[in-house]
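Box 3.1 A note on notation
Throughout this textbook, protein chains are presented in two layers. The first layer is the amino acid sequence; the second is a token string describing backbone geometry. Keep the layers aligned when reading.
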Amino acid sequence: MKLSKTECMTTAGGDTEESRGNRLRVWSLPSVQSAQSWVLSLGRGPLRALTLALIAIVLLLVGIGIIMVQSASQVVAVANGEFPIEAMLRQGAYAALGLAGLVVFARLSTARLRKLSWLLLFLGLCLQLLVYSPLGYEAGGNRNWLRLGPVSMQPAEFMKLVLLLWVSSVIAAKKPLMTKWLHVWLPILPVVALSMFINVLGGDLGTLMVLAVLVFGCLYFSQIRLRILAGIALVAALGIAVMTMIKPNRVFRVLHFMEVDCLTNREHANDMCWQSLNGFWALAGGGVFGVGVGNSKAKWSWLPEAETDFIFAIIGEELGLIGTISVIALYVALIVVLLALMGRCVMPFSISVLGGLTAWIGAQMMINIAVVLGYVPVLGVPLPFISAGGTSLVSLLLAVGAALACIREEAKYSGRSDDSVQPLGSAVMTE
């Protein structure tokens, strides 16, 4: 009997080359194609459209960030004898790592994310404490950096993701009891206060404010009673005030901001007002249409932290008023999409994750832009998805992955798509 080509390739165990290939694809890491297949499997309708919009806006912001980080840091890189496109390669690597993590998180069930949040909480608090060990170091007046071999990171940025998942897990577990103030306060407030206290010892007030808004967003969108939220807000405000006053450098910055007008006071132009003034001049120099990508003058060592905290000023100089308005419009669209997706959720964990993520991105964006425009003191808060920095970018992308996991389970739970909603990678398995 003459055997077919497929039968000839059959192994002793009865597996063909095709079946072995299918198994390899089952156990392989998720790819961009599998992510796309998962989104398309949501079926037609508002859920699919909103999910595609969420992914598109995030990818667009990440792409803008890679380009602007390269533009803002190229001059300094060349002056330091570094590879001219090193910043773009580094930020691109962070983006690739974050997007891979996004796909992995999006494949997880919300039950697994809730269990994982407790492990992440322990890990996050340990990393925060390590900042005050010999592994930690100070940069920009704040001790919030950690060096682990060739890698440096900011544990406080990672804690935003950790608290988003952990607070949402607690809310989901105690939802029937969340009408009582004691169950709202415990264990959320002590753990959050501990993380904030560890962080503020290093002098980072900006991250402290974002953490407070993030947690408040989780609670507010979970429909916790307003009188309980008012009490939490009062305690948080008092806590931030006290934590600010125990750091003399931060008190000096706040008092200087309240007493000195950097636009008219020339006495402080070369010290405390230097960064703000150069940020103003960069925005003004861009005009309506900007001077073009790569043509900024402020990045020639005039504007400190041009690729991180003040990258919005470089966007204004190189892309002009139109560029800055477009970036703000992208953030507004992202917040609207997240709110619309949250409105289609019914599970407490999903609502809290999407609500907290909305508050996180919105607060961080507004604080960063307000600093550049001179409405608040310089706080050291990065522009979401755009500013240079691996910990911030990866943490945000992982949070978006968690939001996608919630969306997938909400679609299953509500019956909007039965067999069409599959875990990431399943579409590849069946091809």
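Confidence is low (pLDDT under 50) at residues 1-31, 416-431. The first helix runs from residue 5 to 8.
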